[in-house]
Amino acid sequence: MTQSITISDWIRQRDTLPLVDVRTPAEFEQGHVPGAFNVPLFSNEERVQVGTTYKQISREEAILLGFELTGPKWAGFIRECLRLAPQKHIAVHCWRGGMRSGAMAWALSLYGFKADTITGGYKAFRRWTHHRFESAYDLRIMGGMTGSGKTRLLQYMQGKGQQAIDLEALAQHQGSSYGTLNKLIQPTQEQFENQLAWQLKDMSADAPLWLEDECQKIGKRSIPAPLWHQMRHAPLIDLQVPLEQRVNTLLRDYGSLDPDFLVEGTERIRKRLGPLQTRQAVAAIREARMTDFIRIVLVYYDKAYRKGLALRPPDKIRTLEISGADPETDFQRLALFTTVKEAGTF
Question: Which one of the listed residues 7, 22, 39, 94 is annotated catalytic?
Answer without folding.
Answer: 94
